[in-house]
Amino acid sequence: MSQNNQRESARQNRKNRIRKRIFGTEERPRLSVFRSAKHIYAQLVVDSTGSTIIAASTLSPEIRTEVNELDKSDAAKKVGQLIGKKAQEKNIRRVVFDRNGFLYHGRVKALAEGARESGLEF
């Protein structure tokens, strides 16, 4: 097994372990984070209906031009602030944070801090 397959397999195991305990509801949706090599994505999910309420990423038109000049961690923080702002507009204050198997470090942590700064509680 190659190193990338081992790394992805370990992430999937962490993800499954986390998802056993985390569940998004209407009152408290799940803030799911996905990190790729270039971009970071965040979405608010209601697991009871299986629907995504709000989504934001470094590819979102609202922040795409700003993010191009920033490094990845600062871009992740902007995405967190954007999803927090969108959630506030829909009167969502409390969420459950799902790091999706990624370590709470670097870009994932920056996104969480940006979301907290914009008013989300988790």
Uncertain parts: none
**Percentage of residues in DSSP E strands:** 15-25%
Number of helices: 4
Our Rg estimate from Cα atoms comes to: 14 Å
Number of strands: 4
Biggest β-sheet, characterized? Answer: 4 strands, mixed
Q: What is the N-to-C order of secondary-structure elements (H for helix, E for strand)?
A: HEEEHHEH
Q: Distance between termini?
A: 37 Å
Give the structural class.
alpha+beta
Mean pLDDT over all positions:
95
Morphology call: globular
Read across the widest sheet, the strand sequence of neighbours is 3-2-1-4
Q: What helical percentage do the residues reach?
A: 40-55%
Can you describe what's shown?
This protein has 122 residues and is α+β, with helices and mostly antiparallel strands. The chain contains 4 helices and 4 strands. It has helices at residues 3-19, 64-67, 72-89, 107-117, and strands at residues 30-35, 40-46, 51-57, 96-98. Strands 3-2-1-4 form a 4-stranded mixed β-sheet. Helix 3 packs parallel to helix 4 (107-117). The longest helix is centred in the middle third of the chain and has 18 residues, at 72-89. The protein is globular. It starts with a helix and ends in a 5-residue tail after the last helix.
